[in-house]
Amino acid sequence: MAFDFDGTITKKDSFIEFIRFAHGDWPFIKGVLKNSIMLAAYALHIYPNWKAKQKLFSYFFKEMPMSEFDVVGEKFINSRTCSFFKKPAIDAIEQHKRAGDTIVIISASPENWIIPFAKKHGINYVIGTQLDVDLHNNLTGSFLTKNCYGKEKVTRLLQLFPDRNEYILIAYGDSRGDKELLRFADKAFYREFPTHEEYEK
User: Fold this and answer.
1) Are the beta carbons of 59 and 34 closer than 8 angstroms?
2) What is the pLDDT of residue 44?
3) What's the whole-model pTM score?
4) Which of 57, 68, 65 minimizes the C-alpha distance to 110?
């Protein structure tokens, strides 16, 4: 069972919320204004998704120790109230757990704050965008892996579970970044979750 995170499990984009949590509202607004031209180009589909995301990430987090980043990530996810998450998504996760299904979260967001969420909810695997560090284990501002978006979600899933004929894949997503994964699945739920009766089938 593969779940997207942002917009599928959460009600808001966790990447933007994490930046605000880590730096505060005013530094966040200042950073957005400084990168406004790039963000406008992204909104107009002139600037690639991954480049816009990496540039914003670098602006806010370059040279931060990875250990500090991980601590902030755990504090961030622990500070989110139930209202941050979609109840039907949490219910779906619990239903799959009760059925003994293997659950993986596949997200374009960094894994660092999704892993604490996964541990809290007993989720088996997290696949996300991984971050590059220097020799001192400080963030370089670059991504170690490709942005886990679009077809990259399928690629990363197959790296973890290569024997595609050996399992039934049910996928949940909410945006164009999930469409390749949803098409790849045996059964896909786009911006919806199964009814109780469907779980019982």
Assistant:
1) yes
2) 78
3) 0.92
4) 57
